[in-house]
Amino acid sequence: MLDLLLPQRCVVCERGGSQLCADCRDALRRLEPPLCARCGAPTAWPVERCRECAGRRIAFASARAAIAYDDAARRLVHSWKERGLRRLATEAAALLAEQLAPRSVDVVTFVPADRTRKLERGHNPAERLARELALAWELPCEPLLERRRGERQRGRSAEERRSMRGAFRSTTAVPRRVALIDDVYTTGATASAASTALRAAGARHVEVVTFARTLLRH
Q: Model confidence over 191-205: pLDDT tens digits?
């Protein structure tokens, strides 16, 4: 009945039928090897560290994403995060599950939202993605982190994004192996700061998994 009253349109191409049509879903750019072993950036050949992460102190063991954060992916993520089309989290989790095998971890967790943004949106996109992905991977999902301060990342420069030290904390004991979920990997600063907090609380191995990844130009 709802679809009759409010016909669905694809958030990428705006054709009627569904929130993400089959053609646009298939056209999303998957991130395939070779990739940087540490941060997951596409590379010309397999490397342990690439230009994006070499020389940086990174708290996570590895980062992987399903798709490139191009214009199509940006429309999808914006609709999911800012327009309240929460069912797109299920699509995003399905794409991730297709692209990445289940992680060898004890638990899945997520980057906590800034409180103001969560109130504005009415949900935490990273949490919804993590819970959907945990179901697909048949792993438990637990909220292990909280924000110490509410700094927004959107609109900040790459250097400003990297100043996330101390932004998160954990108030509970954390299992040894953790998959940390977020919607988009940009510079890795948020993922590294959250991983630092998880390791301080007991994690020994943190794998970052995001739906999309920004591809930086050099």
A: 999 999 999 999 999
